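Exercise 7b. Backbone tokens:
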């Protein structure tokens, strides 16, 4: 899997053809189970959803009073998120990122960026109190993992929480994504 690379076009094709088995129609049970770890007794957090797609958990956390920021290359996925929940939003370009769009709920507590995650920086999106990574690390190309983790680290506040979901399987039997990320590599990447 180390040499496997998916292009942006391949991810967009997955959304346009409905090949999105990774999308869950209901809240993720692991987020629900470990929510206390993510929140760590805090309220009103800024929570980041890398490669968010149209994750229903974004609205769930926003309804709890948190501010949610997500990023995905699929404009279709982001627009479907708002449409599926009947949430009005406004759309505007993102200064400094050519072709990028920011879709923000009119209530202001959900802001989704349509661009490459690698185009983001703390200067654009600020820093976060928590990150819910339920499919980003296992979706990024294996050769980009260190770049991804460096970006995530730069977006995190000093005392932030990072809740990560990976998958265990024999990588010789499945080409990915999701890509196999062994626990030893998670520890090496995140410390």
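Sequence design result:
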């Amino acid at each position: 899997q180390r040499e496997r690379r998916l292009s942006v076009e391949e991810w967009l094709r997955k959304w346009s053809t409905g090949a999105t088995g990774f999308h869950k129609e209901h809240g993720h049970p692991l987020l629900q189970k470990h929510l206390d770890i993510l929140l760590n007794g805090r309220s009103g957090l800024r929570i980041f959803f890398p490669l968010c797609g149209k994750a229903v958990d974004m609205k769930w956390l926003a309804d709890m009073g948190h501010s949610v920021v997500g990023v995905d290359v699929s404009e279709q996925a982001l627009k479907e998120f708002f449409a599926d929940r009947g949430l009005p939003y406004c759309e505007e370009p993102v200064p400094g990122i050519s072709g990028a769009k920011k879709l923000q709920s009119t209530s202001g507590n959900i802001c989704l960026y349509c661009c490459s995650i690698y185009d983001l920086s703390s200067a654009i999106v600020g820093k976060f109190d928590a990150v819910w990574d339920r499919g980003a690390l296992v979706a990024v190309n294996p050769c980009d993992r260190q770049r991804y983790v460096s970006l995530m680290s730069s977006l995190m506040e000093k005392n932030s929480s990072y809740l990560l979901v990976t998958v265990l399987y024999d990588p010789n039997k499945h080409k990915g994504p999701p890509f196999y990320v062994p626990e030893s590599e998670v520890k090496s990447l995140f410390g």
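Instructor comment: The chain has a mean pLDDT of 93. Residues 145-155 form the longest helix (11 residues).
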